Amino acid sequence: GVDLADGSCAHPTIPGRVSPLLPANHVTMAKGTGLVHTAPAHGMEDYSVASHHQLPTDCLVDEGGFFTEAAGPELQNKNVLEEGNEAVIRMLQAGGSLLKEEKYVHSYPYDWRTKKPMIIRASKQWFVNTANVKATAQ
């Protein structure tokens, strides 16, 4: 990891986009290569790394689990866990960026009602200072 510190790499599906190589305590050799992508809008550890390095937390997935317009025309409106996944694989193959493909059962959290996988994603939030409306509400 030390040899890669402060390095960067070309994004595999977005021409001209450069991604920094960043250290992260949650990435270890015990879980694979020790190198992983960071998706700041899709997990607390990734969000923490992105916040520390002042990276944007763009979310390319909508509330229904479909890629948004910001993901690009090849992915827009495709379900992330279905045809969207296959589209990303085709894009990586076309760009010569896919080194190996194998089926893998990901450990997504599952919704207890629908028994379907849930995608963790950042969303905009807002808060109300209830002290200002407290007297009116009584």
Explain the overall architecture.
The chain has three helices and two strands. The protein is globular. By secondary structure, it is mainly alpha-helical. The protein starts with 7 loop residues before the first strand and ends with a helix. The mean pLDDT is 84. The protein is 18% helix and 4% strand. The chain has a two-stranded antiparallel sheet. The longest helix has 12 residues, at 83-94.
Q: Note the overall shape.
A: globular
Largest sheet: 2 strands, antiparallel
The number of helices is 3
Which class best fits the helix and strand makeup?
mainly alpha
Give the H and E element order: EEHHH
Give the C-alpha Rg: 19 Å
Report the end-to-end length measured between terminal Cα atoms.
Answer: 58 Å
Secondary structure tally: strands: 2
Low-confidence runs: none
Global mean pLDDT: 84
How much helix, percentage-wise, in residues?
10-25%
Query: Beta-strand percentage?
Result: under 5%
**Order of strands in the sheet with most strands:** 1-2
InterPro entries: Ile-tRNA_ligase, Val/Leu/Ile-tRNA-synth_edit
GO cellular component, one term: mitochondrion
Protein name: SYIM protein
Keywords: Aminoacyl-tRNA synthetase, ATP-binding, Ligase, Nucleotide-binding, Protein biosynthesis
